[in-house]
Amino acid sequence: MSIQRDLRLLKIYAVVMTLLVGTLSVAAFRQAAQKTRFTEIDVERINVVEPDGKLRMVISNRPRSIGPIYKGKPFGYPGGTRPGIIFFNDEGTENGGLTFTGRVREDGGYASSVGMSFDQFNQDETLTLRYSDENGRKTTGITIAERDNRDIYDLIMQRDSINKLADSASRTAALQRLLGPRNGVPLRATRVYLGRDPSKSAVLNLSDPSGRPRLRLRVDSLGNASLEFLDENGAVTAKLPNP
Fold first, then answer.
1. Relative to the CA of 33, which of 6, 61, 75, 184 has its CA 20 to 30 Å away?
2. pLDDT tens digit string along 186-211?
């Protein structure tokens, strides 16, 4: 009887210890999974997500880069073209990013670009900081734009549907109605541009709601400064200093 009692106690002890060790092991694994430190890591893509799985940020190389996302749904065009960082809002819709390229082409020329953009809600770029260099033809600047409030997902879906029309004349007319100005206001209009243009001039352009430059402050490549007032057709109506 004593031996049987001792065996039962030993079995109970073994079960308890097994459960205890298992519980501690799971807890230790969870703790390790919550925070891991790396000295160096090579990775092709990192997805930063919210607890519900919505994307918040994607860091990736070119092949694994993500295409446009609207409330968690891909649209517009596939990924694979935008190495860098893409940001997403609370609803899982893309709302800006940082992208960069640069290479020597087969013909010996080169092209390089870096751009950081911030998107209007459920629309496209409204504030950008961009550098572009095409064989020495460089532009570097900040652009502030106004955009129509139409939902970008609906616009792209309508555009893609129109592009399926077999008749080219009907397709062109429908695209112009969809993407053209409404009540004289374009889908996108640059309002402010501050930067360095291809002529090596430092410029500040202020434009009207239709995107037409109306005031231009310029210092050219020789250091000459000017201030120009323009009409809606782009003609200079006044200039300082006077020519």
1. 61
2. 999 999 999 999 999 999 999 999 99
